[in-house]
Design a protein that fits this description.
- Strands 1, 2, 3, 4, 5, 6, 7, 8, 9, 10, 11 and 12 form a twelve-stranded antiparallel sheet that branches.
- Helix 1 packs antiparallel against helix 4.
- This protein is α+β, with helices and mostly antiparallel strands.
- A hairpin with a 3-residue loop joins strand 10 and strand 11.
Length: 250
């Protein structure tokens, strides 16, 4: 397990003084990035090797969202590698060791020179010890998210420089942030699932297709031609409803 200690910053919170949904995703992906960098298998190594680990899907369960200034411990560990895929769990805990967030993620190895996924070799995963690493105890959802047949169309979002990361694609957390923005502010998010299908780049226009249920919402982010970039499903609860505060969700 790889961990780092942090404290929730003012720049990471929403209007309720709790860590925002994009803030949660950023802490998780920062943790795995820190592990790779410390193992000397980070951005420089991957660039020289013409490789990249790209995220295929998230499942993030929010049990309690930490408050401004709260001390937290963010942890991650890979628990399996199969073919092109790598499987990694994450947690965010409070100072007492109680779970605030549990997450699962599926990644795939990409050959940047050939422009296609590639099976992971021993040299690609050295240092990531998986022997004895157990899957986190949580209820695992399927990787794929069903596309709703009925939806309403939201306002287009043009990909700007602040959406882009070192892969020159829209960052994983930014898709979640865009999806969260189309929902009413008073909705708390209890669980997030995200499936990434095609990377959006600078200047692309993402069209949100929004499908609401009683306690969930699916946002499909598409190109103007209908190509799907990402699908984000969020389990929701209205702020102040019974049980919503007990979950601590944002």
């Amino acid at each position: 397990m790889y961990s780092f200690n942090a404290r929730v910053r003012y720049s990471e919170i929403g209007g309720d003084r709790r860590l925002s949904v994009p803030g949660i995703v950023n802490y998780l992906q920062d943790c795995s990035t820190f592990q790779s960098e410390d193992l000397k298998m980070g951005l420089d190594y991957l660039e020289q090797s013409q490789r990249a680990w790209w995220l295929s899907s998230w499942q993030i369960v929010i049990l309690r969202c930490p408050r401004l200034g709260e001390e937290i411990v963010v942890s991650t560990w890979p628990y399996d590698f199969k073919g092109i895929y790598g499987y990694r769990n994450f947690t965010i805990c409070d100072k007492q060791g109680d779970y605030l967030v549990k997450a699962n993620s599926i990644w795939f190895l990409f050959d940047t020179a050939a422009g296609r996924p590639v099976k992971a070799k021993e040299s690609d995963i050295r240092g990531y010890k998986v022997d004895g690493n157990k899957r986190l105890d949580m209820e695992y959802a399927p990787r794929r998210i069903a596309l709703p047949e009925e939806y309403e169309t939201g306002e287009p979002v043009t990909v700007a420089r602040h959406h882009i990361d070192t892969n020159r694609h829209v960052n994983n957390a930014q898709y979640v942030a865009v999806a969260r923005e189309v929902l009413p502010e008073n909705l708390k998010i209890r669980e997030i699932r995200a499936e990434y299908k095609k990377a959006a780049v600078l200047g692309d226009v993402m069209i949100p297709r929004i499908s609401r249920e009683r306690d969930a919402c699916t946002v499909v982010l598409c190109s103007q031609e209908g190509t799907v970039y990402a699908v984000v499903w969020m389990q929701t609860a209205e702020e102040g409803t019974e049980g919503s505060e007990s979950t601590g969700a944002l």
